Amino acid sequence: MSTPGIAIAGGGAAGLALALALHKQGLQAEVFDAGAPDTALADKRILALSHGSMQTLDWLGVWPALERKSAPITTIHVSQQGGLGRTRISAAEQNVAALGYVCPAAALVAALAAAVNNAHIPVHHQRLVHDAMATEEGVHFRAGEEEYRAALLAYAEGAVDEGAHLRQRDYGQHAITCTATLALAHQGAAWERFTSHGPVALLPFAGGGSKEVALVYTCPAAEAEALQQLDDDTFITRLQAEFNGRIQIAAVTQRHRFPLGLRYRDTTVGQRQVWLGNAAQTLHPVAGQGYNLALRDIRDLARTLADAAQQGNDPGAAKTLQRYAARRRLDRHGTIGFTDGLVRLFSNDHPLLHHARGAGLLALDLLPPLRSFVANRMMFGARAFP
Ligand SMILES: Cc1cc2nc3c(=O)[nH]c(=O)nc-3n(C[C@H](O)[C@H](O)[C@H](O)COP(=O)(O)OP(=O)(O)OC[C@H]3O[C@@H](n4cnc5c(N)ncnc54)[C@H](O)[C@@H]3O)c2cc1C
Questions:
Q1: Which ligand 1 atom lies nearest to the CA of residue 283?
Q2: Element (H, E) at 168
Q3: Is 128 part of a structural domain of the chain?
Q4: pLDDT digits over 176-222, tens only?
Q5: Percent of the chain beyond pLDDT 90?
Q6: Which domain does 337 fall in, by range?
Q7: Which of 76, 157, 301, 346 is the most buried (most CB within 10 A)?
Q8: Number of domains in the chain
Q9: What's the CATH code of the domain at 147?
């Protein structure tokens, strides 16, 4: 029976970032992942990382490698189809170089894995973590065939456990993702368009050049399969119509489909256990908040555990975990509520809501402080609050 101090179940984007953050704070961890070494590199998601996430990845030493694979977002255009009200948030107005950065999830995991490897943090592949049992003294678990005991087990398994006390909402929507080549250079612009079938986002992307954008197209689950099967030209025509012909698309790549919903655990800490990333909460991608929230949680968890270690406390002690959960409560619930509210407000065809959305977008456009607040919320999470 081996005894790592802190064990991490899941070596995806959240688990690897946690391992690095702990290492940065002088704490040792071991990662156990169910998949083979290169599985995560097949991840087709394209992520928008906030300005705050870029700063955290820089602190972890990962940003220099990732920056080369990322495109900065310099403006965000927000509008709704068939209605009044639109707004434009710009990096220049917010006094930052970029509102965020877009990178492939696979590039992010590759950069994190390389940094974990350089730091000599042990990562065990093809070791599914199961049968965890926490006691006062430690948490016992199995990884593959082996038994382990740790002071703290951090779950970063990418999904909220069925057995957990959880809250969930099924939006009945799927996201279709692919990359598209525009007729003209994107110039760092992102577009968020709210339509009657759900939000459609185009994000500037560095993959194949300055004309590449990542598409996240949400629609009712019943329509998603048919949309995925459309030939490229018909799909492009449909996409262009969504933007009233303001965006011209030359080509699209193979489409992927993800079911969307909201699932989150009531609490992210338990006896000698903590849940992070999509294992703590799985959010709708409309506001691009899932991994950004995960990184803020990871940064604060690592700092809380380092403070505890300095005072000679055990990383799995109940008071340490409670302190962490209390520190994260406002940002966590704020981000879950913000994303859920946005999906429900903007995926509803009720005429009153349609006008309310138009009024909201108009207010955003007319009031620079409100625009700054929304931009800061996207860039920094709860740090946006005064
Ligand atoms: C279409 C789409 C677009 C998105 N866009 C954005 C965005 O723009 N910005 C943003 O911030 N977020 C976005 N997200 C959310 C983001 O992708 C996730 O928050 C993030 O990738 C979650 O990382 P994770 O490490 O928690 O999970 P995963 O990446 O799923 O990793 C989980 C890992 O755990 C391993 N595992 C599973 N079970 C076990 C086990 N029992 N034992 C050991 N290992 C196990 C798996 O092998 C895997 O390696 C988007 C999501 C979707 C679906």
A1: 15
A2: strand 166-182
A3: yes
A4: 999 999 999 999 998 888 888 888 889 898 755 689 999 989 899 88
A5: 61
A6: 6-71+103-166+261-349
A7: 301
A8: 1
A9: 3.50.50.60
